[in-house]
Amino acid sequence: MAAPGRSTVWDGVIELTKKAQEQCVDPHLWASRLSANLKPFVEFPSTELAEVLVSYICWDNNLPILWKFLHRAIALNLVSPLLVLSLLALRVVPNRSTQSAAYRLYLELLKRYVFTIKDHITGSHYHNVMNSVANILRLPELFPLETDRPGLLVVEFVFKMVSLLLDACLTDEGLIELSQDSTSLWLIKSQDMEIDEKTGSDEKLQSLNNIMAIEMIAEFLRDTVISRLLYLVFSNRVSKWHEFVSRVKLLAESSSALRSSKVVNSGDLLELVSNKRFGYSRDSSNEGSLRKSNAIVDFGSLAPFAGLCHGASLSSLWLPLDLVFEDAMDGYQVNPTSAIEIITGLAKTLKGFNGSTWHDTFLGIWIAALRLVQRERDPIEGPIPRLDTRLCMSLCIVPLVVASLIEEGEYEFVMKTLRGDLVTSLQVLGEFPTLLAPPQCVVSAANKAATKAIMFLSGGDVGKSCSDVINMKDMPINCRGNMRHLIVEACIARNILDTSAYSWPGYVNGQNDQIPQSLSSEVPCWSSFVKGAPLNAAMVKALVSVPASSLTEVEKLYEVAVKGSDDEKISAAIVLCGASLTRGWNIQEHTVEYLTRLLSPPVPADYSGDESHLIGYACMLNAIIVGIGSVDSIQIFSLHGMVPQLACSLMPICEVFGSYTPSVSWTLPSGEEISAYSVFSNAFTLLLKLWRFNHPPIEHGVGDVPTVGSQLTLEHLLLVRNSHLVSSETLNKDRNRKRLSEVARSASCQPVFVDSFPKLKLWYRQHQRCIASTLSELTHGSPVHQTVEALLTMMFRKVNSGTSSSSGAASEDIIPRPEFPAWDILKAVPYVVDAALTACSHGRLCTRDLATGLKDLTDFLPASLATIVSYLSAEVSRGVWKQVFMNGIDWPNPAANLSKVEEYIKKILATTGVDIPSLAPAGGSSPATLPLPLAAFVTLTITYKVDKSSERFLNLAGPALECLAAACPWPCMPIVASLWTQKAKRWFEFLVFSASRTVFLHNPDAVVQLLRNCFSATLGLNAAPMSYSVGSLLGHGGIFPVAPGILYLRMYRALRDTVPVTEEILSLLIHSVKDIVQNRLSKELKTVKTGSSYGQSSLATAMTQVKLAASLSASLVWLTGGLGVVHLLIKETIPSWFLSVDQEQEGPSELVAELRGNALAYFVVLCGAFAWGMDWRSAASKRRQGIMGSHLEFLASALDGKISVGCETATWRAYITGLVSLMVSCLPSWVIEIDTEVMKSLSNGLRRWGKDELAVLLLSMGGLKSMDHAAEFIIHSRS
């Protein structure tokens, strides 16, 4: 009320009003006199005047003329209508039953003024008015915020007004008790207890009031400004909005007054609060509604799936999946991050960007996984991942990804829906018989899976471990399985499908009555073992060759490995490393987990020795390390994300066993003897395969952007492993992260660092120094010097004794082998190799003796091969050694195969358009040359036998040799390939393919040409319409010629500087837009062009192609440069491009310019989504706000006129519009991170371009920090 000191002023107001009331003075005259009387004392609009007038009317003077006076006071701006409505709401609504006429007048005032709210929130008194409104309506209680921001208060006011009407309607019809929120904060019950009798006219007016109130609610929801303000509540107070919607639905479904309305019906009311209208939700289920908004740039979405199944469009939608799947098959580097985590994030990203359903997403993942397997139809032999790795991805990793996506649904009804989408996707998968054809080696497993389904349908006893008792000879000839049967079994094993899948139409071909009454059995190995059969030699042989089919069987093995006798532990370890690891797709993640656990055995409770307890597990540990040392096995561990923990488990093994001399040994059950050197060498060699040990810690790069893979160091692996120890809210919801955490904790609950292993650390630091600089001076008489002398004596004992290296072995054991711990030998090896190379270069040591001596050293301590590799790699890069002639006398001669290698390199690169430099030396007759360290290295490697015993060492030396040869001038790598083909003829295709990749490392123009080929193959710019596909980019297997995408994926890791490549990809994207318009659309555009408008079909086709080009570009950038290059791209490269002046002689057409902007927007956002993820789950997402914030600040500065851009205006506008569209439609988590001032600049810029609705969406999703500006923006924007 009025302050006491001013009571005489307000008493005068009341007196004036009474006289006017009695004399029936015209309201206009009354208002004029009132204004004149008050003008010296108060400022208008006056809060106190509003309180006085409303208090006077309610309820002693509730007369029509006084309501006219009030209306006139509002019209002349003596009082604020918002304030008056607030005061009346608290007085009239609770008394609507007894004051029906007043309630009707209140509704009329509300209708007149609330929908013109823009006219009432201007002026200097705006803030004071809204604060008064907040005090009256207790708006801080509505949203528990301490704020006086007027825009936010306007939102609260509007929501309060419509909520009051809604609660009043529900109460008057007796529906409020049915509401889930019957204790609503805003519910003010009608105070009609004093009325004993109602007249018919009152009841009629109340009925009409109810109808009008409902119509007012509909008008609130229909009005553009009001509905946008309500959308702010929806965006920022989801629970409040859901309560409101539930009450509106209750009213729509149960109100009798609504049925009497001639203006609105139940369907209208439901439509006004539907997701279709308020569908700009952060819930992925509503993404389609947002995309349909005219505000959002339509980048194209997934059409009805049936129409795309057999065309190229389906391939293009999921192209990044195919690229990531294929990239994971490269055995030259393991990934410390689980493929499950990578692919899960990628699938969610692509679903959002494609606007796909979960059915389509699941189907896209399955098809990409099947294509991955089919590309191995014509494999090449060599030390590279083979079919086992591809099957692991398709039949284990992808089912785990799908399980993870389903479990993220959290609520049971959501997960049930997702399982339904999985079912329909697998049913549709049956329409792709070519993709489902199983590779020959898994035909038997597929047939057994199909047989299992037939047996189940026939009522037979089908247990999870029956696969080892099915004899396919007993089954009908038409009982043939395919890849879908294996996928279904993998899904059933993860509890995301059940056996109802066996009843799907067309799932099995055999008839139930064809099932024989009895089945003869093969060796029932697993069944017998689970029942207690001993692990004797015959049982081990059987179990190794047949994968376990259930978790129970693997758990039984693990229990034996932990609690059994020493011999049983070894046998169990051998079995776990067998078919259960490589082909046990239904339980593979458990096999990998248990093997990793076994590498960190616990200290026995009764152990009291001084030496490490690991010594007692030497035989079992060695069996596991050898068993998982193949290329495929390592890649399987990598796909499951176990590499960091695997490295952590190997480090203490290396630390302990490297401290013993070879005299410490153990005898295996087979009678074979293994020494501490063997265990150490096997563990050390495996450890080195897990990181780029022969590369500098920080390789060639620009600024803080290192080249690919250079961050894969021991420190990085331990950092990732330690991160698995950190608990998080999502840990229990993510079965993959939970498994990684449990495995890490089983080894040690404490973080582990390189410093935890002193001997390993000492070698590691020496190794880094060796790569980075020349060897330090060797102190004469020091322990290292003594070790060097002993090793040189052992290696060159024949030379020292004057015996030819070609003579017999009579003198081989004259000099005893030195007894040094392995760590001491590794410390001395660089000096040993340096002395040997120096002697060879000065003619004191022949090349044959050099190779023999190095081989003797690696035979003595196989782990020394790693240090030899790192030393020779460093020496080649320094370029101080002379070239040696590979003439067949001093060094092996590659001439016999060199011309053939050149011929096949040309075949491989036939379609790339890349010129292949001749391999023939200048002059034609001179022999080929290699740098001395490289010649020594290749000569050493070809002394190894190409067999299983040498496989793990060749797998270490092979990539290092290729990397070393690739870094040397052309044609070093082809020469190495020629020499090796003489050794391993079956590896010819692999070696030639490796040599062909080095062409691109020596010629940057060749890299550009290869990238052009990737774009052409993907976009089909030089092909017939719809002939482009994933197959054009990645091929269908085979290497003559190699598909451009495969060639790039197998080449890019060797690039020394990825930044120029990234810039070239950006340039190709920009130019491809013009090519798309010219090559693909020119004819179509001509036929549909009408005036200056292009047909919608043409624009849709163009946008689809542009999206495909951007998707390819983003995938290549992400794979090539990783997080660092993506950061550089967004923070520097893209802004620099916009600032530069377009160099084209003729500016692009408006269509090309606009499509370029859209392409860049899609490219940038997709790069960021690949790198950071769509939400906050990944560790990389912590960098997103800083990098993206910097980019958006650049855009805001340009929009504010602080920076001038040099590109086409249409490109600039399309870029910003497209960028914001993608963020609000796909990446709400990103929007929340945007700085408020930046958001204001972006929204103001969009308004200037007529993109008001998009600006509203942006501001609405910015959280409470932008809500105030969003409200004012909405109120003052164009309707």
Automatic annotation (TrEMBL):
<keyword id="KW-0812">Transmembrane</keyword>
<protein>
    <submittedName>
        <fullName>Mediator of RNA polymerase II transcription subunit 33A</fullName>
    </submittedName>
</protein>
<keyword id="KW-0472">Membrane</keyword>
<feature type="transmembrane region" description="Helical">
    <location>
        <begin position="1026"/>
        <end position="1049"/>
    </location>
</feature>
<keyword id="KW-1133">Transmembrane helix</keyword>
<feature type="transmembrane region" description="Helical">
    <location>
        <begin position="1108"/>
        <end position="1130"/>
    </location>
</feature>
<dbReference type="InterPro" id="IPR039638">
    <property type="entry name" value="MED33A/B"/>
</dbReference>
<dbReference type="GO" id="GO:0016592">
    <property type="term" value="C:mediator complex"/>
</dbReference>
<dbReference type="GO" id="GO:2000762">
    <property type="term" value="P:regulation of phenylpropanoid metabolic process"/>
</dbReference>
<feature type="transmembrane region" description="Helical">
    <location>
        <begin position="1159"/>
        <end position="1176"/>
    </location>
</feature>
